Amino acid sequence: MQSSFLLPTPIANSNSPPSLSLRLPPPSTRTFSFPTGLGLFSVGGRTRRQLSSLRAKPKMDLSGGRGHRTLLEYAGKGGADVGDDLAVLLAHIQHACKRIAAVVASPFNAELGRHGGGGGDGSLSSGRDAPKPLDIVSNDILFSSLQSSGKVAVMASEEDDVPIWITDGGPFVVVTDPLDGSRNIDVSIPTGTIFGIYNRLAELDHLPVEEKAQLNSLQSGNRLVAAGYVLYSSATVLCISFGSGTHAFTLDRSTGEFVLTHPSIQIPRRGQIYSVNDARYFDWPDGLRQYIDTIRQGKGQFPKKYSARYVCSLVADFHRTLIYGGVVMNPRDHLRLVYEANPLSFLVEHAGGRGSDGKSRILSIQPVELHQRLPLFLGSLEDMQELESYDNVQQKINPGYEV
Ligand SMILES: O=P(O)(O)OC[C@H]1O[C@](O)(COP(=O)(O)O)[C@@H](O)[C@@H]1O
């Protein structure tokens, strides 16, 4: 059988794209793909005309003709111009997240999963310090980056009991869940970092350190200056909003840069996917059961049967929802207002969606405790409105599930 192939010809001028010479396949032969420098071209079964139109197609340009735009270019003066302080902080956060991406993917850390190694006192029988679980390692990485940025007054982390005061002059407050979904890490399921950035409240500067650390960290979500997450998955994706649109950048491992791949994300007004831990069905209130039963059968406001997807890793479930639409939820008091619900609600709202506790808009809730937990529903506007029209969607009992 004659095979088909495309050969890159020598490049005479490095500014011009490589041209392709081709021998056409007989009709309906197998499909082959070849790297050409312009991406993978699949040629099986295509006519010469189809191929030349493929060749003529320009590469997708996300930067208005200036090449791929990186996160730091985007945030800088030629882009969103978020201000020097925030740009510096962002540079440190993205650096920390690249390190976390490397740590969670490393074969040498795989066994550290949730519980870490060694004895209860943190030591090994050999006398060395026991390795730390990956969520603690991630917390340490973020802390050290925030500290070296010089831009952070206080960091409040899901991993720490109390917020840590870093520097008096720091203009920002950072709240974070450094490694969400870490319970899945032993089996290489995606994980993520979530962060929110507030301005330091200068009017609290006169208070004792513990008090001002606490109060700065308890700001309501509608005061967020920026929020984001980093998904550690088949690709490492950093999604961020500075309060004007939600944009995602994918890590280019060849350059180490986050490159803008999803500018101005708009969550579809309707999705066809719901994301929840279905095993809790019998602990759900009637309203939530009815809602899920209805959309599953295609009997809701959108006359299509919904599909279920649940990774059990909030960042992954949220990222899919942001791109494909639908709703992602955890109806019990489990996820944290400060570290998870507020940043993700900020992102979904700036993409045209909604974040709610089943009754109220998340960003309007005033946190009263740092580690406060609540039911969380995030998603497409119309799906969220339909969900909230069922009065009773918050799971009040929380029997302490083992897995
Ligand atoms: O057990 P549930 O209710 O399905 O909760 C799963 C959720 O908990 C999380 O693992 C976060 O919980 P932790 O902060 O305790 O790890 C999310 O990533 C996930 O969406």
UniProtKB/TrEMBL annotation:
Record-listed E.C. numbers: 3.1.3.11
Catalyses which reaction(s): beta-D-fructose 1,6-bisphosphate + H2O = beta-D-fructose 6-phosphate + phosphate
GO BP: any one term: gluconeogenesis
InterPro entries, alphabetized: FBPase_C_dom (IPR044015), FBPase_class-1 (IPR000146), FBPase_N (IPR033391), FBPtase (IPR028343)
Gene3D superfamilies xref list: 3.40.190.80, Fructose-1,6-Bisphosphatase, subunit A, domain 1 (3.30.540.10)
GO cellular component: cytosol
Matches recorded under SUPFAM superfamilies: Carbohydrate phosphatase (SSF56655)
Cross-referenced Pfam families: FBPase (PF00316), FBPase_C (PF18913)
Family statement drawn from the similarity comment of this UniProt entry: Belongs to the FBPase class 1 family.
Protein name: fructose-bisphosphatase
Gene: LOC105059908
